[in-house]
Design a protein that fits this description.
- This protein is an alpha/beta fold and 299 residues long.
- It has eight helices and ten strands.
- The protein folds into two domains: 123 residues, Transcription Regulator spoIIAA (2-Layer Sandwich), CATH 3.30.750.24; 138 residues, 2-Layer Sandwich (Heat Shock Protein 90), CATH 3.30.565.10.
- Strands 1, 2, 3, 4 and 5 form a five-stranded mixed beta sheet that branches.
- Helix 1 packs parallel to helix 2, helix 2 crosses helix 3 and helix 6 packs antiparallel against helix 7.
- It starts with 18 loop residues before the first strand and ends with a helix.
Length: 299
């Protein structure tokens, strides 16, 4: 499961010689991934990890800004081609566009047959416009919330309505849990305006998934902390368990920086967690194994 590990935005004098950074655009729900510096194994590792995190979020589109990449041998071509292929296989597919640093990389990608999967544009403005035109329309609900505890109640109400209208009532319980924690965390830790976006992913019916995204104006990304040893019976009824509830209830979740703050997201699908008792059971197994490990002195 994707964790909330940091994807830190780097800029100004602090930009290292080589870097891979990602920024989520709240308006378009697209990710802009920028790779800068000389292509080497370390930069490949950074870029590969970041691509996986970005695709796990299942954005509406992705812009690969490679204009600052020093790759005269076009050694990075296979990574971008793989990313484009993975994005195309997702349902719904994720549109990917690129801005390339020079002719060598463009020629190699063309030889590898990436012309249709990875359209190339001269600048980011053209690439953004292309993403906007290729974006697939999805059912979506947007709600602006104040930094007040009542915001979580409003979020629960709107996600309940969305689940009922989209024909996924079995997701209601988990969706209410997750959205409540995400919104309350934003209220508690960011204390800024909050934007909630609920999107339906996939066709209507049993295969439908929910994408929950909470935006705030605090750039500090959340971290999944060590569990607090609380009674299991309170896990599903009392808030305060924070991201551990999100981690247990969501198929996948994570966080990305935005231009003016951050976005914390989660994807829910029907499956083994439809029954709330299964979440408690899995939680008991996880915590029990950890407790036994500590009891016997294991790391």
């Amino acid at each position: 499961m994707t964790s909330g590990s940091s994807l830190r935005q780097q800029g100004g004098e602090g930009i290292p010689a080589s870097s891979a950074t990602a920024i989520m655009d709240a308006e378009t729900e697209t990710v802009e991934l920028t790779v800068h510096g000389r292509w080497d194994p370390e930069l490949w590792l950074q870029a590969n990890r970041l691509l996986k995190k970005c695709l796990a979020e299942h954005p509406a589109g992705m812009l690969l800004d490679l204009r600052g990449l020093d790759d005269v041998q076009a050694g990075s071509a296979s990574l971008w081609l793989t990313a484009g292929s993975q994005a195309a296989r997702m349902r719904p597919p994720v549109a990917v566009v690129t801005c390339l640093p020079g002719a060598a990389l463009a020629k190699k990608l063309d030889r590898l047959g990436a012309r249709h999967r990875l359209p190339v544009f001269a600048n980011v403005f053209q690439a953004r416009a292309a993403l906007a035109s290729r974006r697939l329309l999805t059912d979506q609900v947007r709600l602006s919330l104040p930094p007040h505890p009542v915001a979580a109640a409003a979020a629960r109400q709107i996600v309940t309505t969305a689940c009922e209208e989209w024909g996924v009532p079995r997701l209601v319980h988990r969706a209410r849990l997750v959205v409540s924690e995400l919104v309350f965390n934003a209220v508690e830790h960011a204390g800024t305006r909050i934007d909630l976006i609920i999107s339906r992913r996939g066709p209507a019916g049993r295969s439908t998934g929910l994408h929950l995204a909470v935006y705030d104006l605090d750039s500090q990304l959340p971290q999944l902390r060590d569990p607090e040893w609380a009674p299991l019976g309170t896990l599903l009824t009392d808030r305060g368990q924070g991201l551990r509830i999100v981690d247990a209830a969501a198929r996948v979740w994570g966080a990305l920086p935005t231009r003016d703050g951050k976005m914390v997201w989660a994807i829910l699908r029907e499956g083994r967690h439809d029954n709330p008792e299964s979440m408690v059971s899995e939680r008991r197994q996880r915590t029990g194994s950890v407790e036994r490990s500590h009891r016997h002195g294991n790391p």
